[in-house]
Amino acid sequence: MRIYRSFLFAPGNRPRFVEKVAHCGADAVILDLEDAVPIAEKEATRQAVREALTAISNCPVYVRINPLVAATSFSQAIGEADLKAIVCGDLAGVILPKTERASEAQQAESILNDLEGERGLQPGGIDLIPIIETALGVHQAFDIASAGTRIKRLAFGAGDFTRDIGVRWSRREVESQYARSALVIASRAAGIEASLDSVWIDIRDPRGLTRSARLAKQLGFQGKMAIHPTQVEPINNAFSPTPDELEHAKRVVAAFETAEAAGEALIQLDGQMIDYPIVEAAQRILDMADALEANRS
User: Fold this and answer.
1) Is residue 64 a known part of a binding site?
2) What domain range is 91 assigned to?
3) Of the four, 4, 222, 231, 262, which is 20 to 30 A from 183 by CA?
4) How many structural domains comprise the chain?
Protein backbone atom coordinates (compact mmCIF):
# COMPACT_ATOMS: atom_id res chain seq x y z
CA MET A 1 0.00 0.00 0.00
CA ARG A 2 1.35 3.39 -0.98
CA ILE A 3 0.42 6.36 1.21
CA TYR A 4 -0.39 9.65 -0.48
CA ARG A 5 -0.20 12.53 1.98
CA SER A 6 0.81 15.25 -0.47
CA PHE A 7 0.11 15.90 -4.15
CA LEU A 8 2.07 18.87 -5.51
CA PHE A 9 0.71 20.76 -8.51
CA ALA A 10 2.92 22.18 -11.25
CA PRO A 11 1.66 24.07 -14.31
CA GLY A 12 2.42 21.95 -17.35
CA ASN A 13 3.43 25.01 -19.37
CA ARG A 14 6.22 26.03 -16.97
CA PRO A 15 9.16 23.67 -17.66
CA ARG A 16 11.27 25.11 -14.84
CA PHE A 17 8.58 24.28 -12.29
CA VAL A 18 7.99 20.84 -13.77
CA GLU A 19 11.67 19.98 -13.38
CA LYS A 20 11.64 20.96 -9.70
CA VAL A 21 8.43 19.42 -8.36
CA ALA A 22 9.70 15.85 -8.37
CA HIS A 23 12.45 16.79 -5.91
CA CYS A 24 10.31 18.60 -3.31
CA GLY A 25 9.42 15.60 -1.14
CA ALA A 26 5.80 15.23 -2.28
CA ASP A 27 4.34 11.73 -2.36
CA ALA A 28 3.08 12.45 -5.89
CA VAL A 29 3.04 15.33 -8.34
CA ILE A 30 0.26 16.65 -10.57
CA LEU A 31 1.17 18.22 -13.88
CA ASP A 32 -1.65 20.60 -14.74
CA LEU A 33 -3.29 20.93 -18.13
CA GLU A 34 -6.41 22.65 -16.80
CA ASP A 35 -6.68 25.88 -14.78
CA ALA A 36 -2.99 26.82 -14.86
CA VAL A 37 -2.71 26.67 -18.66
CA PRO A 38 -4.20 29.30 -21.02
CA ILE A 39 -6.37 27.90 -23.81
CA ALA A 40 -3.92 29.08 -26.46
CA GLU A 41 -1.15 27.00 -24.86
CA LYS A 42 -3.08 23.76 -24.29
CA GLU A 43 -1.79 21.89 -27.33
CA ALA A 44 1.87 22.76 -26.82
CA THR A 45 1.58 22.00 -23.11
CA ARG A 46 0.32 18.48 -23.80
CA GLN A 47 3.56 17.67 -25.56
CA ALA A 48 5.62 19.20 -22.76
CA VAL A 49 3.73 17.18 -20.17
CA ARG A 50 4.13 13.99 -22.19
CA GLU A 51 7.90 14.53 -22.27
CA ALA A 52 7.97 15.31 -18.54
CA LEU A 53 6.26 12.01 -17.75
CA THR A 54 9.25 10.10 -19.08
CA ALA A 55 11.73 12.37 -17.31
CA ILE A 56 10.33 12.09 -13.77
CA SER A 57 11.17 8.76 -12.19
CA ASN A 58 11.41 9.31 -8.43
CA CYS A 59 7.70 9.70 -7.62
CA PRO A 60 4.30 8.95 -9.16
CA VAL A 61 3.13 11.52 -11.71
CA TYR A 62 -0.52 12.38 -12.26
CA VAL A 63 -1.96 14.79 -14.81
CA ARG A 64 -4.99 17.01 -14.31
CA ILE A 65 -6.80 17.09 -17.62
CA ASN A 66 -9.51 19.45 -18.78
CA PRO A 67 -13.12 18.40 -18.12
CA LEU A 68 -14.54 15.74 -20.40
CA VAL A 69 -18.02 17.18 -19.97
CA ALA A 70 -18.47 20.94 -19.97
CA ALA A 71 -20.71 23.69 -21.30
CA THR A 72 -19.31 23.50 -24.83
CA SER A 73 -18.27 20.75 -27.21
CA PHE A 74 -14.86 22.45 -27.44
CA SER A 75 -14.23 21.84 -23.74
CA GLN A 76 -15.12 18.18 -24.12
CA ALA A 77 -12.86 17.81 -27.13
CA ILE A 78 -9.80 19.17 -25.36
CA GLY A 79 -10.37 16.85 -22.40
CA GLU A 80 -10.34 13.84 -24.69
CA ALA A 81 -7.32 15.19 -26.55
CA ASP A 82 -5.50 15.54 -23.21
CA LEU A 83 -5.97 11.85 -22.51
CA LYS A 84 -4.84 10.81 -25.98
CA ALA A 85 -1.70 12.90 -25.58
CA ILE A 86 -0.62 11.78 -22.11
CA VAL A 87 -1.52 8.11 -21.70
CA CYS A 88 1.70 6.09 -21.48
CA GLY A 89 3.44 3.67 -19.18
CA ASP A 90 4.91 6.49 -17.08
CA LEU A 91 1.52 7.99 -16.18
CA ALA A 92 0.43 7.02 -12.66
CA GLY A 93 -3.01 8.55 -12.88
CA VAL A 94 -5.43 11.13 -14.19
CA ILE A 95 -7.05 13.90 -12.17
CA LEU A 96 -10.58 14.48 -13.47
CA PRO A 97 -11.70 18.01 -12.51
CA LYS A 98 -15.19 19.27 -11.72
CA THR A 99 -16.69 15.80 -11.66
CA GLU A 100 -20.42 15.93 -11.01
CA ARG A 101 -21.77 12.57 -12.16
CA ALA A 102 -20.69 8.94 -12.21
CA SER A 103 -21.13 8.94 -15.98
CA GLU A 104 -18.24 11.41 -16.34
CA ALA A 105 -15.87 9.11 -14.45
CA GLN A 106 -17.15 6.15 -16.47
CA GLN A 107 -16.50 8.06 -19.69
CA ALA A 108 -12.91 8.72 -18.59
CA GLU A 109 -12.47 5.07 -17.64
CA SER A 110 -13.78 3.94 -21.02
CA ILE A 111 -11.33 6.19 -22.87
CA LEU A 112 -8.47 4.98 -20.67
CA ASN A 113 -9.46 1.35 -21.31
CA ASP A 114 -9.28 1.94 -25.05
CA LEU A 115 -5.98 3.80 -24.91
CA GLU A 116 -4.32 1.22 -22.68
CA GLY A 117 -5.42 -1.50 -25.09
CA GLU A 118 -4.21 0.36 -28.15
CA ARG A 119 -0.83 1.12 -26.57
CA GLY A 120 -0.12 -2.24 -24.99
CA LEU A 121 -0.29 -0.96 -21.41
CA GLN A 122 -1.35 -2.88 -18.31
CA PRO A 123 -5.16 -2.89 -18.20
CA GLY A 124 -6.41 -0.68 -15.38
CA GLY A 125 -2.91 0.47 -14.48
CA ILE A 126 -3.72 4.18 -14.61
CA ASP A 127 -5.54 5.59 -11.57
CA LEU A 128 -8.45 8.00 -11.85
CA ILE A 129 -9.04 10.66 -9.19
CA PRO A 130 -12.25 12.68 -9.61
CA ILE A 131 -12.17 16.12 -7.99
CA ILE A 132 -15.48 17.08 -6.40
CA GLU A 133 -15.91 20.83 -6.79
CA THR A 134 -19.66 21.58 -6.90
CA ALA A 135 -22.80 21.03 -4.87
CA LEU A 136 -23.99 18.46 -7.41
CA GLY A 137 -20.68 16.64 -7.17
CA VAL A 138 -20.97 16.45 -3.38
CA HIS A 139 -24.55 15.20 -3.71
CA GLN A 140 -23.39 12.49 -6.15
CA ALA A 141 -20.15 11.65 -4.31
CA PHE A 142 -21.01 8.03 -3.47
CA ASP A 143 -22.03 7.24 -7.05
CA ILE A 144 -18.84 8.86 -8.34
CA ALA A 145 -16.70 6.96 -5.82
CA SER A 146 -18.35 3.72 -6.96
CA ALA A 147 -18.14 4.48 -10.68
CA GLY A 148 -15.14 2.38 -11.66
CA THR A 149 -12.30 0.15 -10.55
CA ARG A 150 -9.69 2.81 -11.34
CA ILE A 151 -11.06 5.17 -8.69
CA LYS A 152 -9.01 4.60 -5.53
CA ARG A 153 -9.79 7.96 -3.93
CA LEU A 154 -11.65 11.24 -4.44
CA ALA A 155 -10.34 14.78 -4.06
CA PHE A 156 -12.06 17.96 -2.91
CA GLY A 157 -11.74 21.38 -4.55
CA ALA A 158 -12.75 24.16 -2.16
CA GLY A 159 -12.26 27.08 -4.52
CA ASP A 160 -14.78 26.06 -7.15
CA PHE A 161 -17.07 24.57 -4.50
CA THR A 162 -17.40 27.81 -2.54
CA ARG A 163 -17.98 29.73 -5.75
CA ASP A 164 -20.66 27.25 -6.75
CA ILE A 165 -22.61 27.62 -3.50
CA GLY A 166 -22.08 31.39 -3.42
CA VAL A 167 -19.99 31.83 -0.28
CA ARG A 168 -16.53 33.14 0.54
CA TRP A 169 -13.70 30.68 1.08
CA SER A 170 -12.72 31.56 4.64
CA ARG A 171 -9.54 30.72 6.51
CA ARG A 172 -11.49 28.62 9.02
CA GLU A 173 -13.17 26.72 6.17
CA VAL A 174 -16.37 26.17 8.13
CA GLU A 175 -18.39 26.69 4.95
CA SER A 176 -17.02 23.49 3.41
CA GLN A 177 -16.86 21.12 6.39
CA TYR A 178 -20.15 19.45 5.45
CA ALA A 179 -18.90 18.83 1.91
CA ARG A 180 -15.59 17.49 3.16
CA SER A 181 -17.32 15.12 5.56
CA ALA A 182 -19.63 14.00 2.75
CA LEU A 183 -16.60 12.94 0.68
CA VAL A 184 -15.10 11.06 3.62
CA ILE A 185 -18.35 9.18 4.22
CA ALA A 186 -18.94 8.48 0.52
CA SER A 187 -15.41 7.12 0.13
CA ARG A 188 -15.76 4.85 3.13
CA ALA A 189 -19.17 3.61 2.00
CA ALA A 190 -17.82 2.90 -1.49
CA GLY A 191 -14.87 0.96 -0.06
CA ILE A 192 -12.14 3.16 -1.53
CA GLU A 193 -9.25 4.95 0.17
CA ALA A 194 -9.67 8.18 2.10
CA SER A 195 -9.94 11.39 0.06
CA LEU A 196 -7.46 14.16 -0.69
CA ASP A 197 -8.23 17.61 0.66
CA SER A 198 -8.24 20.87 -1.27
CA VAL A 199 -5.22 23.10 -1.74
CA TRP A 200 -4.46 25.98 0.65
CA ILE A 201 -4.13 29.01 -1.60
CA ASP A 202 -2.16 31.39 0.67
CA ILE A 203 1.45 30.28 0.31
CA ARG A 204 2.52 32.97 2.82
CA ASP A 205 0.43 31.45 5.62
CA PRO A 206 2.06 28.21 6.79
CA ARG A 207 0.15 28.29 10.08
CA GLY A 208 -3.13 28.41 8.20
CA LEU A 209 -1.98 25.53 6.01
CA THR A 210 -1.06 23.42 9.02
CA ARG A 211 -4.39 24.17 10.70
CA SER A 212 -6.25 23.25 7.51
CA ALA A 213 -4.29 20.01 7.09
CA ARG A 214 -4.85 18.97 10.70
CA LEU A 215 -8.57 19.63 10.37
CA ALA A 216 -8.68 17.56 7.18
CA LYS A 217 -6.91 14.70 8.94
CA GLN A 218 -9.36 14.94 11.83
CA LEU A 219 -12.27 14.78 9.39
CA GLY A 220 -10.83 11.62 7.84
CA PHE A 221 -8.80 12.71 4.82
CA GLN A 222 -5.63 10.85 3.82
CA GLY A 223 -3.74 13.81 2.42
CA LYS A 224 -3.87 17.24 0.84
CA MET A 225 -3.00 18.85 -2.47
CA ALA A 226 -0.35 21.60 -2.59
CA ILE A 227 0.40 24.47 -4.95
CA HIS A 228 3.90 25.38 -3.76
CA PRO A 229 6.95 23.33 -2.73
CA THR A 230 7.07 25.01 0.70
CA GLN A 231 3.68 23.48 1.49
CA VAL A 232 4.82 19.88 1.09
CA GLU A 233 6.64 19.39 4.39
CA PRO A 234 3.86 20.84 6.60
CA ILE A 235 1.32 18.67 4.79
CA ASN A 236 3.44 15.53 5.12
CA ASN A 237 3.96 16.23 8.81
CA ALA A 238 0.26 16.82 9.44
CA PHE A 239 -0.76 13.53 7.83
CA SER A 240 2.02 11.40 9.35
CA PRO A 241 1.75 9.70 12.74
CA THR A 242 3.53 11.67 15.45
CA PRO A 243 6.10 9.93 17.68
CA ASP A 244 3.59 10.04 20.55
CA GLU A 245 0.88 8.48 18.37
CA LEU A 246 3.24 5.72 17.28
CA GLU A 247 4.36 4.97 20.81
CA HIS A 248 0.78 4.87 22.09
CA ALA A 249 -0.31 2.64 19.20
CA LYS A 250 2.50 0.18 19.92
CA ARG A 251 1.54 0.03 23.60
CA VAL A 252 -2.13 -0.48 22.76
CA VAL A 253 -1.46 -3.34 20.34
CA ALA A 254 1.08 -5.03 22.62
CA ALA A 255 -1.13 -4.77 25.71
CA PHE A 256 -4.16 -6.09 23.88
CA GLU A 257 -2.27 -9.01 22.37
CA THR A 258 -1.17 -10.01 25.86
CA ALA A 259 -4.71 -9.66 27.19
CA GLU A 260 -6.23 -11.57 24.28
CA ALA A 261 -3.82 -14.44 24.83
CA ALA A 262 -5.19 -14.59 28.37
CA GLY A 263 -8.77 -14.71 27.09
CA GLU A 264 -9.68 -11.04 27.59
CA ALA A 265 -11.09 -8.66 24.98
CA LEU A 266 -11.51 -5.51 27.07
CA ILE A 267 -8.65 -3.93 28.99
CA GLN A 268 -7.69 -0.63 30.55
CA LEU A 269 -4.57 1.30 29.54
CA ASP A 270 -3.67 4.70 30.96
CA GLY A 271 -7.23 5.12 32.16
CA GLN A 272 -8.77 4.29 28.78
CA MET A 273 -10.90 1.28 27.98
CA ILE A 274 -9.37 -0.63 25.08
CA ASP A 275 -11.41 -2.96 22.88
CA TYR A 276 -11.24 -4.21 19.29
CA PRO A 277 -12.16 -0.92 17.52
CA ILE A 278 -9.46 0.94 19.48
CA VAL A 279 -6.91 -1.74 18.67
CA GLU A 280 -7.82 -1.66 14.98
CA ALA A 281 -7.29 2.11 14.92
CA ALA A 282 -3.91 1.68 16.61
CA GLN A 283 -2.91 -0.99 14.10
CA ARG A 284 -3.82 1.34 11.23
CA ILE A 285 -1.37 3.89 12.63
CA LEU A 286 1.38 1.27 12.74
CA ASP A 287 0.52 0.07 9.23
CA MET A 288 0.70 3.65 7.96
CA ALA A 289 4.13 4.12 9.53
CA ASP A 290 5.32 0.93 7.82
CA ALA A 291 3.90 2.08 4.49
CA LEU A 292 5.59 5.46 4.77
CA GLU A 293 8.88 3.73 5.45
CA ALA A 294 8.33 1.56 2.38
CA ASN A 295 7.64 4.72 0.34
CA ARG A 296 11.05 6.04 1.29
CA SER A 297 12.91 2.85 0.41
Assistant:
1) yes
2) 6-238
3) 231
4) 2
